[in-house]
Amino acid sequence: xxxxxxxxxxxxxxxxxxxxxxxxxxxxxxxxxxxxxxxxxxxxxxxxxxxxxxxxxxxxxxxxxxxxxxxxxxxxxxxxxxxxxxxxxxxxxxxxxxxxxxxxxxxxxxxxxxxxxxxxxxxxxxxxxxxxxxxxxxxxxxxxxxxxxxxxxxxxxxxxxxxxxxxxxxxxxxxxxxxxxxxxxxxxxxxxxxxxxxxxxxxxxxxxxxxxxxxxxxxxxxxxxxxxxxxxxxxxxxxxxxxxxxxxxxxxxxxxxxxxxxxxxxxxxxxxxxxxxxxxxxxxxxxxxxxxxxxxxxxxxxxxxxxxxxxxxxxxxxxxxxxxxxxxxxxxxxxxxxxxxxxxxxxxxxxxxxxxxxxxxxxxxxxxxxxxxxxxxxxxxxxxxxxxxxxxxxxxx
Amino acid sequence: xxxxxxxxxxxxxxxxxxxxxxxxxxxxxxxxxxxxxxxxxxxxxxxxxxxxxxxxxxxxxxxxxxxxxxxxxxxxxxxxxxxxxxxxxxxxxxxxxxxxxxxxxxxxxxxxxxxxxxxxxxxxxxxxxxxxxxxxxxxxxxxxxxxxxxxxxxxxxxxxxxxxxxxxxxxxxxxxxxxxxxxxxxxxxxxxxxxxxxxxxxxxxxxxxxxxxxxxxxxxxxxxxxxxxxxxxxxxxxxxxxxxxxxxxxxxxxxxxxxxxxxxxxxxxxxxxxxxxxxxxxxxxxxxxxxxxxxxxxxxxxxxxxxxxxxxxxxxxxxxxxxxxxxxxxxxxxxxxxxxxxxxxxxxxxxxxxxxxxxxxxxxxxxxxxxxxxxxxxxxxxxxxxxxxxxxxxxxx
Lengths: 397, 397
Known about the structure:
Number of strands of chain A: 17
CATH topology of the largest domain in chain A: TIM Barrel
CATH superfamily of the largest domain in chain A: Metal-dependent hydrolases
Distance between the termini of chain A: 25 Å
Strand content of chain A: 15-25%
Number of helices of chain A: 11
CATH class of the largest domain in chain A: Alpha Beta
Structural class of chain A: alpha/beta
Largest interface: A-B, 36 and 35 residues
Oligomer: homodimer
Number of domains of chain A: 2
């Protein structure tokens, strides 16, 4: 299938035409002729973005596609965890179906690559993992999905979870996860030793949820850095959320940034209006790799995340009162290239030869597209058009 | 013109039909027959909301309709004020045209009532005021607009501004404004005496921008309360922004809430991701009147505000991590009834007899509509349909 997108602005630059052939970007230029039989799309001077990348979400637990479920949890992290288990067990949802629904939901908003944390626990064993792994296959042409084996209910406090997580890695989870080694497990040495040992044995990536604030979070990053260095895992680890980086004082932050750089530890942020979040512009200026994610979308943790990564870039700008164009553009970079790099993509972006994951959206500049995050006019994944004239072509699930 | 909206959910309730005749809500019920010649709209089970209300914006200064203007100001309040004057004088925009553009922009997003602060200064005199007053007339059928005479560049520090502001009130500004009496004028006694005296003389409302944090803001609220009581202006004053209410300690806050209630001083909030904002749920529970606004939309202050009040309700929920349905619904109340009340509307809401300012939007519940804030499917103002099937029927300006 060949498609010519006429008159669009790749990343807000000069207007040009983009030819897509065999699922790849074949040519960029002005006045390109449409090959015989090619579909022609009028870019109408709109922004052409590479497919958005959601580098931190939870595909297995969304309530999308079910009737609206009023949020019912208390406010503490542990209330949210317990409540979710109750809701999911009451609703008896199928993780394969739910994750497929969410992939479609995200695709309709322009997201073509997704790193999903997937719950693993002694109660559910590998059921969620198998469901999302199934979706990773069934949706392989639509979106690139990475799975993080994630101990939502704790790791060291529940004997057996570490083994289940390692089993998931053996069965194809690309990343080993973790969760507040101090705050949840109360055993940072135990959890981090176990997680890094699994990564060492299987050569997988590491991505640890770190909500712990202040020194609790800071010592966790120090311990991650020590283990990264000791096991030769430089460039393999990611800290998700990392609220502590927005919470410690300037001097402590400088030290932590040094450790992140030395060990090439990346940061994934989801924003979060009421928490301190990592100081994005400062970390990026220092050279720290960063990506962005939606976190859980309409799930038992609450309904505030809606799975739109262009809007999430806006939320990141809003959080730090970033008003200048280069700063706003940085937020979009987190939601595109930053995420693709975090996922190890090698064929990503708007250059010729890359996979044709493309989004058309109203706007003259990256900053404008972020600030208005209007509905996606066109979404293409691997050369296949899934949203046309703002209307989804995907079958409802 | 008669319109029957079939099968919608007023404020997320049970599905019913709504009949609109002569610009008013004429009937609500199930299985209503369409009168001869009536336009019939398929509500498709969507939410029906009353027109959104933007209780704090700046119609006169938007750059909407002009090419994207990269943000160029420094970070301090004074940098932003100075930069704006430079940009507006360079671009030579017409406040009447710009405010009309913004009214259309807002209407397309469902906003039918607007309180706009309008710059008054010794450099521009009443030029912006006259422009927006013109738009208030030309758009009278489309949106109810209130004007606040606003001393953007300072009041007591620029001799002549107070007189110009009073002149604006004489010429029909419904509200007398103010700006950080401590932080900008360094003369809280002078500014507040002048503002309240004008209100006392003309019986207009008062609405003061208060960005000043901590005690600087708190003493300003105390001084507003004193003058409200002394001049018998209970129920006439609004504090806009009021960041200090999110910044002082619990005990100080309780005292300030007491003053707000005693003098029926209202609060208008625009959110603001990086500032403390008034604790909405706490203030509302105490009985403080509250409304919400977009603040300036795509202007020289920055591009982050986009003029969508349904999304702004979401931003307010996001800011305080409000995840429960009643809490999220409260944010929507600020952007609807709360704003209408702030503007003194007497024919507002979804009940029979009120002006037919109506918005159809996908969603089963108020919380769902807020969290997704999808494009408006239908917008009606005074019975006139201005957005149909998601497409604006307004002439481009």
